[in-house]
Specification:
single chain; about 450 residues; Aspartate Aminotransferase, domain 1; Aspartate Aminotransferase, domain 2; 7-stranded mixed beta sheet; 18 helices; 15 strands; about 40% helix; binds pyridoxal-5'-phosphate
Length: about 450
Amino acid sequence: MPDGALTNSKIVAAYREKTPSSSSRATQAREVFPSGLVHDSRKLDPYPIYVDHAQGAHKWDIDGNEYVDYFGGHGALILGHNHPTVLAAVHAQLDKGTHFGACHELEVRWGELVKQLVPCAERVRFTSSGTEANLMALRLARAFTGKSKLVRFKGHFHGWQDHVAFGVTSHFDGTPTPGIVDGIAENVLLAPPDDIEATRRIFEAHDDIAAVMLEPTGASFGQVPVTREFVAELRKIATEHGVILIFDEVVTGFRVAPGGAQEHYGVTPDMCSLAKILAGGLPGGAITGRADIMELLDFEKAAEKGFEKIGHQGTFNANPMSAAAGIAALELIAKGDVCSKATATADSIRAQLTAVFEEEQVPWACYGEHSGFFVFTNPANEAITPSTFDPFEQAHETLKLSGPGDLITKLRLGIMVNGVDMSAKPGGVVSAIHTPDDVDKTANAMRQAVRMLKEEGDIAG
Ligand SMILES: Cc1ncc(COP(=O)(O)O)c(C=O)c1O
């Protein structure tokens, strides 16, 4: 393990002591997968935990350790793990068949629910993932406008396909990351994520922009937040310039509100991409939007109007298992208070973690909106007061910096040995079934981790 400062850490030692089976599984995995991983966000030094099972808001690793889970299936599980209604729907479908290679009734119901909930969804096309949905959104926008360029915002994440793979964690100058051809990068314009005037200037300087795409609550579900005014103004200037506005609602869809960020803001994009909650915890995505754009996928319209249809296949599009889980989840979200419950619990996590930082006199903050929370570890060590911290006063680069050296890794490990699993932001997504007891455990885990970091001299106190 190339861990430097991690080698002599008591926190790391405590983690190793609790997770020997995960350690040996990780060693085995390194012989199979690059870095032993199948998803970059699951990287953790000295090794990640291997999870055996999960229930509700909790998961258990193969050493039997229990964690309050804030990965939430990378945001897919607003209903928590194994929600009984979703499970029953999936079990029922399993007995009927996992893949018909044919149209089926569930796909129609699933699509109708998307139309019912999502304001921009005049037509729907299912994909297998959010990455695919965004790829199709871009292709549709280009075909519809006859223009080539995509405007994106620095730090906003839209999956891993070529057009969106740079300017997220690196290459903010717009140069392509390895493996991406120059021609693609030349057709992407990166805008600062917090400056609508800069975006307006980009629109004015280029007459070949097909689309502008954003995470509508800001980069990484609001780790770098945007304001409602920013989004509303973007809608306005996109319309003025004939640019297709695409909301990437892969995370925010069915989470910020049943109809996503567009419902919350009252701002309707031309298209939006969906995934995660859409499929109730199984794989799935969708592109939705204006009927006149989506008709580019329509055989009859193409014949009638004489345009060349856009092709779209995908072995697992609207897979019956995903459709069954998705319908169960969306029906619960449509009729209940799922989104508002998750948001209320996240409010309480933000408040409790803020109190921990105040009490421990650590110049950190917990912030976020909706059902997400982020810990600001103050990489520049500014004098901040946790309870009055305002992320809008920070440079967007600073909000995404994870602090010096191995601090975040040790913070995460310290939280994990105290029974809570957060992402590397650091932060998490909250479900509708996290309880007040989970929130207390989370605050306690943070307090213990902060004290461990103080003991190791990583933070003052
Ligand atoms: C905002 C956003 N867009 C797109 C994606 C990509 O979705 P998928 O992982 O389903 O390809 C993600 C995944 O985390 C995401 O957070």
